[in-house]
Design goal:
The chain is of the alpha+beta class. The longest helix is centred in the middle third of the chain and has 13 residues. About 15% of the residues are buried.
Length: about 100
């Protein structure tokens, strides 16, 4: 399910002025808690998802830190680049393993 509210889906701007969009999905899948942080820039030329599974899942406050790190660090963001299909909310509403 999509994590609405709590400012996790705010648009953020990096130091270069690039705007970044985020959506956080979370749910129990086969008894394991999974969080996915989907991100993309304004032009959708960089898209990706960071997946936190089981013990790697973090509290909401730490999710904001993860999002901040995705905005601030291109090297960190680069490790999680994946071509996304839009609209993200419709395509990734249910859990499917990432290709």
């Amino acid at each position: 399910m999509w994590w609405n509210g709590q400012n996790l889906d705010l648009t953020r701007t990096d130091r270069t002025g690039q705007r970044w969009h985020f959506r956080v999905w979370h749910d129990q899948v086969d008894g394991t808690y999974i969080q996915r942080v989907f991100f993309w820039n304004e032009g959708r030329s960089e898209t990706g998802v960071l997946e936190l599974i089981g013990e790697r899942a973090v509290h909401r406050r730490r999710l904001k830190d993860v999002i901040h790190r995705l905005v601030a660090r291109a090297d960190f963001r680069g490790r999680h680049l994946v071509n996304l299909e839009f609209p993200v909310e419709k395509k990734y509403a249910t859990y499917l393993p990432l290709a």
